[in-house]
Amino acid sequence: xxxxxxxxxxxxxxxxxxxxxxxxxxxxxxxxxxxxxxxxxxxxxxxxxxxxxxxxxxxxxxxxxxxxxxxxxxxxxxxxxxxxxxxxxxxxxxxxxxxxxxxxxxxxxxxxxxxxxxxxxxxxxxxxxxxxxxxxxxxxxxxxxxxxxxxxxxxxxxxxxxxxxxxxxxxxxxxxxxxxxxxxxxxxxxxxxxxxxxxxxxxxxxxxxxxxxxxxxxxxxxxxxxxxxxx
Length: 231
Hints:
The protein is an alpha/beta fold and about 230 residues long.
């Protein structure tokens, strides 16, 4: 069955362009030009991804992102205007998994879409009957069911956050660079991005885990090198 993707953008030319490229790759695409229509699709369709513009006429796209995260864990890619660095960071904080800046290369967007869906499926569909579970200092990660708990309390993580935490937990005691995290999280589709992307996801993970930047119990920053979780 083909993956279902919702495009939310008030510029029909952009929505149609993205739709054309995604449909050529075999995806089922829904288009919405307003937030209200988008919310209907989100509630009625069993979506696999949303591509979401920030600037909409009736509601900020960040609010839609927040509402999606209240119910669903599928990937969200934000579309941002050139130079709106604050919107990018805010989008990631609200639960978006990736962002792409307008104007963009359609083929790059398609590659990002495939990378996000590939990772999401890998962490949500069990490859084997036996569960793959990582346990460390009160943190329990079930790779196959995409469930994570800390001290027996569930953590609601986006696919990207889950992926980053899994990589760090599988490499406990080892420093993982931002570049390596990009490769591990985004797969083969690696593009030059600001380090803010990983930094914001790490910050959001710490917030959800009740961890602190100054005295972290889990994710430690190794300046000039990367991140690690101590043994």
